[in-house]
Amino acid sequence: MLILKILFWILAFIVVYTYVGYGIVLYFIIKLKRIFKPAKTHGFNGAYQPEVTLFIAAYNEKDYVADKINNTLSLDYPKDKLQVVWVTDGSDDGTPELLKKYNNVTVHHLPERNGKISAMNRGMKFVTTPIVIFSDANTMLGKESIQRIVRLFANPTTGCVSGEKRIINKESDVASGAGEGLYWKYESALKKWDAELYSVVGAAGELFAIRTELYRDVEKDTLLDDFVISLRVAQDGYTIQYDPEAYAVENASANVKEELKRKIRISAGGIQAVVRLRSLLNIFKYGTLSFQYISHRVLRWTLTPLCLLVLIPVGFMLAYNEGLLSFGMYATLFGLQLLFYIAALTGWFMENRSTRIKALFVPYYFFIMNLSVVLGFFRYMKKTQSVNWERAKRAD
Fold it and tell me: Which of 36, 37, 117, 300 is most buried by its number of CB atoms within 10 A?
């Protein structure tokens, strides 16, 4: 039983550290850093306004074109310094034809559908501005988003800037909306602390920017283009910064089934990225960046879901040995495990039912997140994930 107890605490430590402990450690490191090494300013001001390109790779997005163009026109940035580029490879719903009706929009179209990465690699050849900002066709940007992103590039050590993804929440949300919204609020806090410590570990594809000169063509089978592009910028010695007030807004997934589909793709891409960016695991070479990368990303996409799975039989054996009704330590901890999964089951039952107690959906969303990693792993191993656009349905 001693071996089982040691295994139990190792597994429990990894799970708690991944989802709670890293945030706590990061918070206290930041507090100490503020005391002993106050943040330096880099002369951020409104005078720094270089030319930028808003780059949108799209596939059959006709329904979003008008809203996206109107949103782009409303952005608070000098119009003569903002170029707008759409790459619409494979679109056959009239998207490129509709876009060509707008002034100040450059459209690059090919009839072949080769996936988002191929479209990005091709489209970047036409970008001439020093900064390129990537966004999705179905996400609307905050009015000051470009201004705030560009401001951070005044620091020459900044190579990439990530905006914030905001989920539209309603008073009565389905499980996907409530869970996804709470998840992104927590992620936002971690990103702010990551950036303050050294660098964010990965950008949000809905809105992120890089120095154009740092863009390197991405392998055509890459699933998480935003993550790989931004981390390679960090590998080159630059930092990824973050401004939560530079944001992109989109609806939550229509339901948990759609959210699971999206997260399985992300998880398969995450595992692919961990393999492809394995040199970042060398903490002796990358130091703080490796610590942040492993703690915030790698554990979530590799070890932690497995630990959660193994904790169930290990916890049961220890509780059984102690006496399931003994109220001993291991029996109590196993009982809490059961309560968590019962709560997740309740969340499944309540999916798509109106409720104002959104916290009830958190265990279910957490379960879905980790299930997606397991399913994503098998999809990655089978090499069955397509690189073509596979958009999840969004809530109305």
Answer: 117
